[in-house]
Amino acid sequence: MQRNKRIWWIAFGLIVILSYGIWEAYNQPSIKDLPGQFEEVAFVRNEQNKGGIVRVYAVSVGDIANANYEACADLFPTNDYGSITKIYFFDKNKPYPNALQIDTPHYDGKKYEAIMIVKRAGKEK
Questions:
Q1: Edge-to-edge strands of the sheet including 114-121?
Q2: Parallel/antiparallel/unpaired status of strands 54-61 and 38-45
Q3: Cβ-count burial of 71 within 10 angstroms (0-12 exposed, 13-18 middle, 19+ buried)?
Q4: pTM of the model
Q5: For residue range 35-72, what is the model confidence (pLDDT) as tens digits?
Q6: Strands 114-121, 54-61: parallel, antiparallel or unpaired by DSSP?
Q7: Rounded distance, CA 80 to CA 115, Å?
Q8: Beta bridge partners of 59
């Protein structure tokens, strides 16, 4: 009888831990949860045959006055070993690029105007 009770308590504990893990995995914050009405509109990444990973994002911003650009940039991935992540923010009410290129300049600067550029770099190890 005592052994049966212990098995049920262990099973209950495992179910609680598993349920919390699943809930946590599906409730991660995204850029849509931040103030500013952010929306990712373009992305490009290098092939990374040699050297660090280079990621370039274009994000449209609907509410420029209340936007939290740094918090938004923190949600994008950055790896160590010389990787670079660049996020270009564009006004949603003006033209913005729907495609980017890996080489600089990443978009046509004559057609589109970024309102904020945030760059994150990984640690050199």
A1: 38-45, 54-61, 84-91, 114-121
A2: antiparallel
A3: middle
A4: 0.79
A5: 889 999 999 998 866 778 899 999 999 989 899 999 99
A6: unpaired
A7: 27
A8: 40, 89
